[in-house]
Amino acid sequence: MNIRLTNRGNTLVAVLNGELDHHTAEYIRQKLDAEMLKSTTKNMVLDFSKVTFMDSSGIGVIMGRYKNIQKLNGKMSLAGVNEQIKRIFEMSGLFKVMPAYDSIDEAINKM
Amino acid sequence: MNPINEVKLEFVSKSSNEAFARVVAAAFVSQIDPNIEELADVKTAVSEAVTNAIIHGYENKTGLVKMICKLYEDAVEISVIDEGKGIEDIEKARQPMFTSRPDMERSGMGFTVMENFMDRVEVVSEVGGVLP
Ligand SMILES: Nc1ncnc2c1ncn2[C@@H]1O[C@H](COP(=O)(O)OP(=O)(O)OP(=O)(O)O)[C@@H](O)[C@H]1O
Ligand SMILES: [Mg+2]
């Protein structure tokens, strides 16, 4: 799994690419946290359109970042979530705390 | 009833083997022509079980994880087995959002995912495994 990070205003946009499981979660976590520390960013959009697999480890990564962002009074949203991954998010009640949009642009507009 | 086909796999409890195990399970299941969604369901459920064996069973120490895939006339059965610390209260462990490791950013959704993606999930455990 790899991750591409860009800043758009005070929103960090992270495009995840590959399989998000326990093995890759640690790397993603580190990358996101390091970027949040060094920039003035307080919001985050996680783009899942290139994520080919995810299990419950992904929920842990997202909720962990969400807690950090809450402390900054920031907002978090998701983009490009496929049907399989959407089912896991629904099961875990993730959409109760953050919205999901079709595209990154839409997520940023609604931020 | 005897299985029509059977595959056994044993691997060390390294996180890089999580992807390996789920790909093997998907390849095994492929012989009954599942659709893409069914394949993804199996991969996800296997990933949950194997991850649990590695992080909870063996607590990230080195142990062996076994996976047994069986094909029957009208069903596939996949077992993931560790000989780690075991589960004291299975009913509690299976509850959505229950995790013994919130410190590791676990969400307690693994068993719930397995139950939603498979027709049936059976958990058998004894406390006290091969590792201290
Ligand atoms: N193989 C195992 N050996 C020992 N304990 C286990 C094992 N599998 C699960 N458990 C226990 O059951 C609990 C619930 O497991 P489950 O997979 O539902 O959640 P989790 O692994 O804690 O979090 P998540 O899967 O969402 O990352 C675990 O926290 C752990 O205490
Ligand atoms: Mg789990």
UniProtKB/TrEMBL annotation, chain A:
Stored Gene3D superfamilies: STAS domain
Keywords noted in UniProt: Phosphoprotein, Sporulation
PANTHER family tied to this protein: ANTI-SIGMA FACTOR ANTAGONIST TM_1081-RELATED, ANTI-SIGMA FACTOR ANTAGONIST TM_1081-RELATED-RELATED
Protein name: Anti-sigma F factor antagonist
Superkingdom of this protein's organism: Bacteria
UniProt similarity note: Belongs to the anti-sigma-factor antagonist family.
Span of domain STAS: 1-111
Keyword Phosphoprotein: yes
A molecular function (GO) term: antisigma factor binding
Function according to Swiss-Prot or TrEMBL: In the phosphorylated form it could act as an anti-anti-sigma factor that counteracts SpoIIAB and thus releases sigma f from inhibition.
Alphabetical list of NCBIfam families matching this protein: ant_ant_sig, spore_II_AA
Database matches in CDD domains: STAS_anti-anti-sigma_factors
Pfam families (UniProt xref): STAS (PF01740)
SUPFAM superfamilies reported in the protein's UniProt record: SpoIIaa-like
A Gene Ontology BP annotation from the UniProt entry: sporulation resulting in formation of a cellular spore
UniProtKB/TrEMBL annotation, chain B:
GO BP annotations listed: negative regulation of sporulation resulting in formation of a cellular spore; sporulation resulting in formation of a cellular spore
InterPro entries: Anti-sigma-factor_SerPK, Anti-sigma_F, HATPase_C_sf, HATPase_dom
Sorted UniProt keywords: ATP-binding, Kinase, Nucleotide-binding, Serine/threonine-protein kinase, Sporulation, Transferase
Annotated GO MF terms: ATP binding; protein serine/threonine kinase activity; sigma factor antagonist activity
Top-rank lineage group of the source organism: Bacteria
Domain Histidine kinase/HSP90-like ATPase: 21-126
Protein name per the record: Anti-sigma F factor
